[in-house]
Amino acid sequence: MTTDASAPALSEGLASLRPMTLDEINARAALVTRTCRKYLVPVTFVDSLFAGAEERFGVLTIGGRQVFQYSSTYLDTPDLRTFHAHRGGRRVRFKARVRTYVDTGTRMFEVKLKGARGITDKTRIEYEGPPDRLTPVTRRFLDDTLRGYGMDPPDVLTASAVTDYRRTTVVSFSGEERVTVDTDLVGYRNGWSVGMRPDTVLLEVKTRGGLTSTERRLHQHGFREVGFSKYGATVTVLEPRLRGNRWHRAMTACLDHQVPVPVSAPAPQEQVGAALHT
């Protein structure tokens, strides 16, 4: 396997896992309809979490790279309807975002739907337009998706926040679970930014069933599921008039003192200055 010298270093525990292609991962564990649970752990714990897991897990590898830069631009109504639905724990809700895979320049328009049973259903299409607005194609896709889910589409959606982070994706060979390992999270809104502490990792376990082997290991070490949303935390911290009680404990644990700092330049990957950095 060749290594991209410009790629961020991978922890020893993750680097020991077998490289897997995206096609192989999707064949084993696409998990588009799934249950998602999040955990916050020290960065030093990741090695031990996956130590000795070479026979059970692989890691997404593309062109020798295993750590990838993601950037998500979230679209919401002017009164932040999707934010409030998420914060309030509404049983049926949605998020709309444009996700940019920075290393390849690929963009996808995604709609994440949460059903009454707590199941997440993600649907998406390839997208070549600007990240901070809907096009006629994405507008139709959003409307059709929401109506098919029994929801009324909003009249207006505009860019409300950007989150940038690095991600490594680990998948069990059995297809039982898909674990994303996120670091270096930075959220942007209205000319301000807030970042995650460098000693903290956000794990998200995606599965169709109950507790996975990874989660049982997390529980053995005292880590429990947390309520956390990258989008929700960004908006809550950078909008003083709002409160995020649903995520307060996790935000306190992982965000860098919750002190917003001015953005001296547009978000490095998205550059959606007109909508978010004025």
Task: Kindly give the count of domains.
Answer: 1
Largest sheet: 8 strands, antiparallel, barrel
- If helices are DSSP runs of H or I spanning 4 or more residues, what is the number of helices? 9
Q: How much is the radius of gyration in Å? A: 18 Å
The CATH topology is given as Hypothetical Protein Pfu-838710-001
The CATH class is identified as Mainly Beta
- The total beta strand count reads 12
Helix and strand sequence: HEHEHEEHEEEHEEEEHHHEH
Mean pLDDT: 86
Q: Could you estimate the helical fraction of the residues in percent?
A: 10-25%
**Approximate shape:** globular
State the CATH architecture.
Beta Barrel
Structural class: alpha+beta
- Cα-to-Cα separation, first versus last residue: 44 Å
The CATH H-level superfamily is Hypothetical Protein Pfu-838710-001
Low-confidence stretches: 1-7, 265-278
Strand content: 25-35%
Summarize the helices and strands and which ones pair or pack.
Elements: H1 12-15, E1 18-20, H2 22-29, E2 33-42, H3 46-49, E3 57-60, E4 68-76, H4 81-87, E5 93-101, E6 106-114, E7 120-126, H5 136-148, E8 158-172, E9 177-189, E10 192-195, E11 200-207, H6 213-220, H7 230-238, H8 248-254, E12 261-262, H9 273-276
Parallel strand pairs: 1-3
Antiparallel strand pairs: 2-7, 2-11, 3-8, 4-5, 4-8, 5-6, 6-7, 8-9, 9-10, 9-11, 10-12
